[in-house]
Specification:
alpha+beta, eight-stranded mixed barrel, 272 residues
């Protein structure tokens, strides 16, 4: 079986930056075990599987190298970008997922047909505001921190005072992997610098992702937190991983709109 396959760098307008995602276009979902093996073979933090529906929408699922994920931003962005490359002409595109209906629109500056190597899109995701929680005794030591504000949604949210603290983190990945965080990880964030509202990093080793380069879904939590703290709805953020990533988020009630760019690195065919 020949499967159209794309490798897309998300949340960047440059190749070899942002977060690589695999995108497979299928007539119907494969067996879960096969999709999991494809994701493990790809070794991206996420591989997306996209299936066209009879009503013109799409079904969408995401797999890390270890597990099926319940929400993924960068692979959703990559999937929309691939559909634009394949001349899909109804926007916003509608994805049916285990986290409900997710829509992706072309940004106003990108209403012209997307170039072969670049595109800008805005995703509409559910807000997941963080809530007070009991801090696991192992969490801050695993991050190399002595003190921080800790909250939780799907992920733990760890808030520190300065961007340099986030940049300088050298966490104990093995210790983080032992924390009980179903379908989640640990976000570390701080106020931004130089026109950025906030910075962040994400560690999710239990999902097979020691550190995610540029993550969309965490802004479902980060955007409500920083919007309330800073008193503004539209925010600019940077993920301080080695590859880096930039995104803009806008809170609107129980939704968060997350905007970013993407670049095509590779297209080809998987033989299954």
């Amino acid at each position: 079986m020949a499967i159209p396959y794309y490798h897309v760098d998300s949340f960047t307008d440059e190749l070899f930056a942002g977060n690589p995602a695999g995108v497979c276009i299928l007539p119907a979902f494969l067996a879960d075990s096969i999709m999991q093996k494809i994701a493990a073979e790809n070794r991206h933090s996420e591989t997306a599987f996209v299936v066209p529906r009879a009503d013109g929408d799409f079904d969408l699922r995401w797999f890390t190298p270890k597990v099926e994920d319940d929400l993924c931003g960068h692979a959703t962005l990559a999937s929309a970008y691939v559909l634009a490359l394949r001349k899909h002409n109804v926007w916003p595109v509608r994805f049916h997922t285990c986290s409900g209906m997710l829509t992706v629109a072309k940004n106003p500056v990108a209403q012209e047909p997307v170039a072969q190597d670049q595109g800008s899109f805005e995703m509409d995701f559910p807000a997941r505001p963080p809530q007070p929680c009991e801090t696991p005794a192992e969490l801050l030591p695993a991050l190399g921190l002595k003190a921080a504000l800790v909250m939780r949604s799907r992920d733990y949210l760890v808030v520190v005072d300065h961007a340099e603290q986030v940049r300088a983190l050298k966490p104990d990945i093995a210790a983080l992997a032992k924390l009980d965080i179903p379908n989640g990880g640990t976000i570390v964030t701080a106020p931004g610098e130089g026109g950025l509202d906030y910075v962040c990093r994400l560690f999710a080793p239990a999902e097979g992702i020691d550190e995610d380069p540029a993550t969309g879904s965490i802004h479902c939590t980060l955007a409500p937190y920083w919007a309330a703290r800073l008193g503004k709805d539209t925010l600019r953020a940077q993920q301080l991983s080695a590859r880096g990533g930039t995104m803009q988020s806008t809170t609107s009630g129980d939704r968060v709109k997350i905007a970013g760019s993407a670049r095509l690195y590779l297209r080809g065919t998987l033989e299954i």
